[in-house]
Please model this.
Amino acid sequence: MTHFRKSLTALPMLLLAGAASAQDWAGRYWGGELSFGAGSSAYKQDFLATSKTEIDASGGMIGAVYGHNWQTGNRVWGYEADLSVGSFEGSATAPAPICSGLGPCSSELSTLVTLRGRIGIALDNGLLPFATAGLAVGQVEIRADEFACDAEPCATDGTKVGIVVGGGVEYPFRETWNLRGQVQYINLGEEELDGSGPTGTVSAELSYIRVNLGFTRRF
Model:
């Protein structure tokens, strides 16, 4: 019975420890990434609330990443921050009244910062699949048709805050160097455009899916 009690006491520690991993992922790391992807600007107007105008966006970015991992057995968790610059943009001249030749709809995401938590499982073959989620902050510019606004194109630009979720995988190809790839969904929320006209407030919701390919170095 005493041995049984000791076994029960040790069980939580064994569960926390997890299985042994051949790869040590613990510590700080930095790296670089290239981003490719697509997104959309979903425009709507108050008096046309049941109808949305979707404007596609696409592009690429280049960025830097920094993070820190902790590891218990084969379980790896930590945080990661990245900064990317480039352009995810799109425009359209239809359908009216929100988009037309008078002042086409357009949107551009030029800078993106994310701060995320990560959790993954270190596999025996060296791979580290992981899930990630957190905060996204983007520098954006959004424009709509002057007909939908107040006799001139309405626009807004500035810093928008939203969410990011995703997942990916890393693989060590040198002693302290890793290759990585991940997919992220980013939503920067809905924003009212300055200068919206008498027919109702114009707003746009920005969302993106991007694929990141890059490398990191542990130190």
Notes: Residues 27-218 form a domain with the Porin fold (CATH 2.40.160.20).
